[in-house]
Specification:
It is built from 10 helices and 8 strands. By secondary structure, the protein is of the alpha/beta class. Helix 5 links the parallel strand 4 and strand 5. Helix 1 packs across helix 10. About 55% of the residues are buried. Bound molecules: arginine (ARG) and manganese (II) ion (MN) (2 copies). One manganese (II) ion (MN) binds next to loops. The site of arginine (ARG) has 15 residues, from loops. Pathway: Nitrogen metabolism; urea cycle; L-ornithine and urea from L-arginine: step 1/1.
Length: about 300
Protein backbone atom coordinates (compact mmCIF):
# COMPACT_ATOMS: atom_id res chain seq x y z
CA UNK A 1 0.00 0.00 0.00
CA UNK A 2 1.19 3.50 -0.81
CA UNK A 3 0.05 6.37 1.40
CA UNK A 4 0.16 9.79 -0.22
CA UNK A 5 0.51 12.65 2.23
CA UNK A 6 -1.29 15.82 1.13
CA UNK A 7 -0.89 18.89 3.34
CA UNK A 8 -3.81 21.34 3.43
CA UNK A 9 -2.43 24.22 5.50
CA UNK A 10 -5.56 26.28 5.93
CA UNK A 11 -7.09 28.09 8.88
CA UNK A 12 -10.03 29.74 7.10
CA UNK A 13 -12.58 27.47 8.77
CA UNK A 14 -12.19 28.86 12.28
CA UNK A 15 -11.00 31.80 14.36
CA UNK A 16 -7.72 30.74 15.90
CA UNK A 17 -4.57 31.30 13.89
CA UNK A 18 -1.92 28.60 13.81
CA UNK A 19 -3.84 25.53 12.64
CA UNK A 20 -2.44 26.20 9.15
CA UNK A 21 0.92 25.04 10.57
CA UNK A 22 -0.54 21.62 11.34
CA UNK A 23 0.97 19.82 8.32
CA UNK A 24 4.49 21.05 9.16
CA UNK A 25 4.12 20.10 12.80
CA UNK A 26 2.86 16.60 12.01
CA UNK A 27 5.64 15.99 9.50
CA UNK A 28 8.22 17.35 11.96
CA UNK A 29 6.84 14.94 14.56
CA UNK A 30 8.02 12.06 12.36
CA UNK A 31 4.99 11.17 10.26
CA UNK A 32 6.92 9.66 7.40
CA UNK A 33 8.95 7.33 9.64
CA UNK A 34 5.85 6.45 11.65
CA UNK A 35 4.08 5.42 8.46
CA UNK A 36 7.08 3.48 7.20
CA UNK A 37 7.16 1.59 10.47
CA UNK A 38 3.59 0.57 9.71
CA UNK A 39 4.94 -1.15 6.61
CA UNK A 40 3.45 1.12 3.96
CA UNK A 41 5.22 3.04 1.21
CA UNK A 42 5.05 6.77 1.69
CA UNK A 43 4.82 9.46 -0.96
CA UNK A 44 4.65 13.07 0.14
CA UNK A 45 2.86 15.40 -2.28
CA UNK A 46 3.79 18.44 -0.18
CA UNK A 47 1.32 21.15 0.73
CA UNK A 48 -1.43 22.74 -1.30
CA UNK A 49 -0.86 26.43 -1.81
CA UNK A 50 -3.18 28.33 0.47
CA UNK A 51 -3.06 32.14 0.38
CA UNK A 52 -2.35 33.68 3.78
CA UNK A 53 -5.27 35.60 5.27
CA UNK A 54 -3.11 38.72 5.14
CA UNK A 55 -2.89 38.44 1.36
CA UNK A 56 -6.64 38.42 0.94
CA UNK A 57 -8.94 41.27 0.25
CA UNK A 58 -10.41 42.10 3.66
CA UNK A 59 -13.85 42.35 2.03
CA UNK A 60 -13.72 38.67 1.19
CA UNK A 61 -13.68 37.95 4.88
CA UNK A 62 -17.26 39.06 5.17
CA UNK A 63 -19.72 36.22 5.45
CA UNK A 64 -20.88 35.32 1.98
CA UNK A 65 -23.54 32.70 2.59
CA UNK A 66 -25.67 32.91 5.71
CA UNK A 67 -23.03 33.74 8.27
CA UNK A 68 -20.36 31.37 6.92
CA UNK A 69 -16.93 33.04 6.96
CA UNK A 70 -14.29 32.79 4.21
CA UNK A 71 -16.44 30.61 1.95
CA UNK A 72 -14.63 31.79 -1.16
CA UNK A 73 -11.22 30.83 0.25
CA UNK A 74 -12.54 27.54 1.52
CA UNK A 75 -14.04 26.73 -1.85
CA UNK A 76 -10.65 27.32 -3.52
CA UNK A 77 -8.72 25.20 -1.05
CA UNK A 78 -11.18 22.32 -0.93
CA UNK A 79 -11.58 22.21 -4.71
CA UNK A 80 -7.82 21.82 -5.14
CA UNK A 81 -7.75 19.28 -2.34
CA UNK A 82 -10.57 17.25 -3.89
CA UNK A 83 -8.50 16.97 -7.10
CA UNK A 84 -5.42 15.85 -5.17
CA UNK A 85 -7.35 13.24 -3.23
CA UNK A 86 -9.17 11.95 -6.33
CA UNK A 87 -5.89 11.68 -8.27
CA UNK A 88 -4.28 9.76 -5.44
CA UNK A 89 -7.16 7.30 -5.18
CA UNK A 90 -7.17 6.89 -8.97
CA UNK A 91 -3.46 6.03 -8.80
CA UNK A 92 -4.25 3.21 -6.41
CA UNK A 93 -2.91 4.98 -3.34
CA UNK A 94 -4.51 5.88 -0.05
CA UNK A 95 -4.46 9.65 0.47
CA UNK A 96 -3.72 10.99 3.94
CA UNK A 97 -4.75 14.64 4.23
CA UNK A 98 -3.13 16.78 6.91
CA UNK A 99 -5.16 19.78 8.07
CA UNK A 100 -5.63 22.53 8.56
CA UNK A 101 -8.96 22.95 10.23
CA UNK A 102 -11.84 20.57 9.63
CA UNK A 103 -13.21 22.54 6.67
CA UNK A 104 -10.69 20.53 4.60
CA UNK A 105 -13.02 17.54 4.94
CA UNK A 106 -15.25 19.09 2.29
CA UNK A 107 -12.39 18.53 -0.17
CA UNK A 108 -11.32 15.13 1.14
CA UNK A 109 -14.83 13.74 0.95
CA UNK A 110 -15.46 15.16 -2.50
CA UNK A 111 -12.20 13.76 -3.81
CA UNK A 112 -12.63 10.35 -2.23
CA UNK A 113 -16.20 10.09 -3.54
CA UNK A 114 -15.45 11.24 -7.06
CA UNK A 115 -15.68 7.86 -8.77
CA UNK A 116 -17.11 5.75 -6.01
CA UNK A 117 -19.59 5.39 -3.25
CA UNK A 118 -18.07 5.98 0.13
CA UNK A 119 -19.01 5.98 3.77
CA UNK A 120 -17.43 8.04 6.54
CA UNK A 121 -16.43 7.58 10.15
CA UNK A 122 -16.18 10.88 11.99
CA UNK A 123 -13.92 10.76 15.05
CA UNK A 124 -14.71 14.07 16.73
CA UNK A 125 -15.97 15.76 19.88
CA UNK A 126 -18.19 17.81 17.56
CA UNK A 127 -20.91 17.05 15.03
CA UNK A 128 -19.67 19.51 12.38
CA UNK A 129 -23.23 19.43 11.10
CA UNK A 130 -24.06 23.12 11.19
CA UNK A 131 -25.10 25.06 8.11
CA UNK A 132 -24.38 28.68 7.21
CA UNK A 133 -27.77 29.49 8.70
CA UNK A 134 -27.69 27.44 11.89
CA UNK A 135 -24.02 27.94 12.84
CA UNK A 136 -23.56 29.96 16.01
CA UNK A 137 -19.99 30.87 15.05
CA UNK A 138 -19.96 31.19 11.27
CA UNK A 139 -16.92 28.90 11.28
CA UNK A 140 -17.00 26.44 8.40
CA UNK A 141 -15.01 23.83 10.35
CA UNK A 142 -18.30 23.29 12.18
CA UNK A 143 -20.12 22.55 8.89
CA UNK A 144 -18.20 20.13 6.63
CA UNK A 145 -20.36 17.07 7.15
CA UNK A 146 -23.52 19.08 6.50
CA UNK A 147 -21.93 20.40 3.32
CA UNK A 148 -20.87 16.96 2.13
CA UNK A 149 -24.29 15.50 2.77
CA UNK A 150 -26.10 18.38 1.17
CA UNK A 151 -27.99 19.09 4.36
CA UNK A 152 -29.88 22.37 3.91
CA UNK A 153 -29.58 24.63 0.91
CA UNK A 154 -26.22 26.19 0.15
CA UNK A 155 -27.40 28.25 -2.77
CA UNK A 156 -24.22 29.96 -3.83
CA UNK A 157 -21.97 26.95 -3.44
CA UNK A 158 -22.25 24.25 -6.01
CA UNK A 159 -19.50 22.24 -4.33
CA UNK A 160 -21.74 21.34 -1.48
CA UNK A 161 -23.98 18.34 -2.07
CA UNK A 162 -21.38 16.97 -4.45
CA UNK A 163 -20.28 13.82 -2.73
CA UNK A 164 -23.21 11.47 -3.09
CA UNK A 165 -22.44 10.45 0.49
CA UNK A 166 -25.53 8.94 2.14
CA UNK A 167 -26.47 9.68 5.73
CA UNK A 168 -26.95 5.94 6.23
CA UNK A 169 -23.21 5.47 5.69
CA UNK A 170 -22.01 8.08 8.17
CA UNK A 171 -21.08 7.20 11.75
CA UNK A 172 -19.85 9.51 14.47
CA UNK A 173 -17.58 8.22 17.21
CA UNK A 174 -17.05 10.11 20.46
CA UNK A 175 -19.48 13.05 20.21
CA UNK A 176 -19.70 15.26 23.29
CA UNK A 177 -20.28 18.87 22.19
CA UNK A 178 -23.25 19.74 19.99
CA UNK A 179 -25.07 22.98 19.35
CA UNK A 180 -28.82 22.80 19.96
CA UNK A 181 -29.94 23.01 16.35
CA UNK A 182 -27.17 20.62 15.39
CA UNK A 183 -28.34 18.09 17.95
CA UNK A 184 -31.86 18.22 16.53
CA UNK A 185 -30.59 17.89 12.97
CA UNK A 186 -28.45 14.88 13.85
CA UNK A 187 -31.38 13.23 15.62
CA UNK A 188 -33.56 13.80 12.55
CA UNK A 189 -30.93 12.45 10.20
CA UNK A 190 -30.21 8.86 9.16
CA UNK A 191 -26.65 9.10 10.46
CA UNK A 192 -25.47 6.88 13.30
CA UNK A 193 -24.05 8.76 16.26
CA UNK A 194 -21.99 7.15 19.01
CA UNK A 195 -21.33 9.57 21.85
CA UNK A 196 -18.74 9.38 24.61
CA UNK A 197 -21.47 7.80 26.75
CA UNK A 198 -21.76 4.98 24.23
CA UNK A 199 -18.02 4.43 24.46
CA UNK A 200 -18.26 4.43 28.29
CA UNK A 201 -21.05 1.89 28.15
CA UNK A 202 -20.07 -0.40 25.30
CA UNK A 203 -16.33 0.04 25.11
CA UNK A 204 -14.29 1.40 22.24
CA UNK A 205 -14.00 -1.93 20.40
CA UNK A 206 -17.72 -2.47 20.12
CA UNK A 207 -18.44 1.12 19.14
CA UNK A 208 -15.76 1.38 16.47
CA UNK A 209 -16.68 -1.99 14.97
CA UNK A 210 -20.30 -0.88 14.79
CA UNK A 211 -19.31 2.47 13.25
CA UNK A 212 -17.18 0.75 10.63
CA UNK A 213 -19.94 -1.58 9.63
CA UNK A 214 -22.38 1.33 9.25
CA UNK A 215 -19.91 3.33 7.18
CA UNK A 216 -18.79 0.39 5.08
CA UNK A 217 -22.21 -1.04 4.32
CA UNK A 218 -22.62 -1.45 0.56
CA UNK A 219 -19.98 1.13 -0.40
CA UNK A 220 -16.61 0.95 -2.15
CA UNK A 221 -14.60 2.30 0.77
CA UNK A 222 -14.55 4.38 3.91
CA UNK A 223 -13.17 7.83 4.62
CA UNK A 224 -11.86 8.27 8.16
CA UNK A 225 -11.94 11.82 9.48
CA UNK A 226 -9.87 12.26 12.62
CA UNK A 227 -10.32 15.57 14.41
CA UNK A 228 -7.66 15.71 17.12
CA UNK A 229 -10.15 17.28 19.55
CA UNK A 230 -11.72 13.81 19.61
CA UNK A 231 -9.00 12.98 22.13
CA UNK A 232 -9.00 14.19 25.68
CA UNK A 233 -7.34 17.63 25.89
CA UNK A 234 -4.95 16.34 28.56
CA UNK A 235 -3.21 14.31 25.85
CA UNK A 236 -4.07 16.52 22.86
CA UNK A 237 -3.94 20.13 24.06
CA UNK A 238 -2.99 21.62 20.69
CA UNK A 239 -6.47 22.10 19.25
CA UNK A 240 -8.64 25.18 18.77
CA UNK A 241 -11.87 23.87 20.29
CA UNK A 242 -10.91 21.47 23.11
CA UNK A 243 -13.67 19.64 25.01
CA UNK A 244 -13.11 17.75 28.24
CA UNK A 245 -13.91 14.08 28.49
CA UNK A 246 -12.42 12.74 25.26
CA UNK A 247 -11.00 9.34 24.42
CA UNK A 248 -7.80 8.11 26.03
CA UNK A 249 -4.49 7.34 24.41
CA UNK A 250 -5.15 3.59 24.34
CA UNK A 251 -8.75 3.94 23.16
CA UNK A 252 -7.58 6.11 20.29
CA UNK A 253 -4.84 3.71 19.22
CA UNK A 254 -7.18 0.77 19.44
CA UNK A 255 -9.78 2.56 17.34
CA UNK A 256 -7.15 3.22 14.67
CA UNK A 257 -6.00 -0.41 14.80
CA UNK A 258 -9.56 -1.55 14.18
CA UNK A 259 -9.70 0.81 11.22
CA UNK A 260 -6.57 -0.81 9.79
CA UNK A 261 -7.98 -4.30 10.38
CA UNK A 262 -11.22 -3.47 8.61
CA UNK A 263 -9.36 -3.12 5.29
CA UNK A 264 -12.01 -0.62 4.21
CA UNK A 265 -9.93 2.54 4.48
CA UNK A 266 -10.04 4.48 1.21
CA UNK A 267 -8.86 7.88 2.43
CA UNK A 268 -8.07 9.54 5.72
CA UNK A 269 -7.52 12.97 7.17
CA UNK A 270 -6.15 14.23 10.44
CA UNK A 271 -7.16 17.78 11.25
CA UNK A 272 -7.23 20.59 13.81
CA UNK A 273 -3.63 20.26 15.08
CA UNK A 274 -2.67 23.80 16.12
CA UNK A 275 1.05 24.01 17.02
CA UNK A 276 0.61 27.49 18.51
CA UNK A 277 -1.68 26.02 21.16
CA UNK A 278 0.27 22.77 21.55
CA UNK A 279 2.75 21.75 24.22
CA UNK A 280 6.10 20.64 22.77
CA UNK A 281 4.41 19.34 19.63
CA UNK A 282 2.72 16.54 21.57
CA UNK A 283 -0.60 16.77 19.70
CA UNK A 284 1.23 16.62 16.38
CA UNK A 285 3.24 13.61 17.61
CA UNK A 286 0.08 11.86 18.67
CA UNK A 287 -1.46 12.60 15.28
CA UNK A 288 1.52 10.97 13.56
CA UNK A 289 1.39 7.95 15.87
CA UNK A 290 -2.34 7.45 15.40
CA UNK A 291 -2.09 7.52 11.64
CA UNK A 292 0.57 4.83 11.78
CA UNK A 293 -1.82 2.65 13.79
CA UNK A 294 -4.54 3.40 11.22
CA UNK A 295 -2.24 2.18 8.45
CA UNK A 296 -1.37 -1.07 10.18
CA UNK A 297 1.36 -0.54 12.76
CA UNK A 298 1.30 -3.32 15.35
CA UNK A 299 3.13 -3.75 18.64
CA UNK A 300 4.10 -7.33 17.83
N1 LIG B 1 -14.01 20.87 13.64
C1 LIG B 1 -14.29 21.47 14.79
N2 LIG B 1 -13.39 21.57 15.73
N3 LIG B 1 -15.50 21.98 14.92
C2 LIG B 1 -15.95 22.73 16.08
C3 LIG B 1 -17.32 23.32 15.86
C4 LIG B 1 -17.77 24.11 17.05
C5 LIG B 1 -19.20 24.64 16.94
N4 LIG B 1 -20.15 23.58 16.85
C6 LIG B 1 -19.34 25.56 15.72
O1 LIG B 1 -20.11 25.32 14.85
O2 LIG B 1 -18.67 26.55 15.66
MN1 LIG C 1 -13.98 18.83 16.80
MN1 LIG D 1 -14.36 18.55 13.65
Amino acid sequence: MTVRIIGAPTDYGQDRRGVDMGPSAIRYAGLSDALSSAGVDVADAGDLRVPRAEERDPNSRQPSEGNAKFLQEIEEVTTALADGVADSVAAGETPLVLGGDHSVAIGSLRGSARDAEIGAVWFDAHGDYNTPTTSPSGNVHGMPLAAALGYAEWDSVDWANATGLREENVAYVGLRALDDSERAAIRDSEMTAYTMSDIDERGITDVVEAALSVAGDGVDGVHASLDMDWLDPTIAPGVGTPVRGGVTYREAHHAMELLAESDALRSMEVVEVNPVLDESNETASLAAELTSSAFGKRIL
